Write the structure tokens for this entry.
Amino acid sequence: FSLFFGLFVIFGLIYMAASVFITGDNLERWSGDSLTGGAAGRLELVMDTFTPWLNSPSAWLFGNGAGAFITLGFSDKYPHNQPIEVLTELGLVGFSIYLGMLFFSVKYSVELFRLSADSTDHRSSATILIGIALFGFLLTLKQGTVHNSGVDMMVFIVIARLALFERNVLDEDEAYGDEHEDEYEDDEAHEFDDEEDTDDTAPETSFSY
């Protein structure tokens, strides 16, 4: 019953979302021509952003400056692609920092997913959080600007913090287990020594005939 009810709720929410967002003008955006034209337009916008930076060696290292895209004379205010925006406006230095942030985000996401294996609740929460982060990153490839990407950065920070927390908990549990194992071995050794002392001090039995 619970499975049926869950599926009913999910499909109901999908239907409600489709009826609200995929109507009228929004419905036209889902047509084949609209999707193809939108992809082609964004690709052209990316090339228009990348080409001036590539043709200006002096901007390779530090870029053209934050917000420099608007000076290129296009009607759009940003290139709708955050990696390209970071590369062209902040140069290779800024892009290296950006890649470093992505690297550590992936690293901590994998670590959080691995460390939460012992708890179904923790694993499901970690999966949802990682899914939100991945979805947010995919959106940066088609929309948004680096200057208002605070939500994405906050999700990455939360993932890293949770991964470090889970790691510390695991280390503490292992240290606690090792400490008690040592105490148990010491207790066994003392008991063994006491038994030997008892045997040594036991009175000798003499027989007289």
Notes: The helical segments are 2-21, 25-29, 32-54, 82-115, 120-140, 150-201. Residues 110 and 166 are 12 Å apart (CA to CA). The chain is about 75% helix and 0% strand.
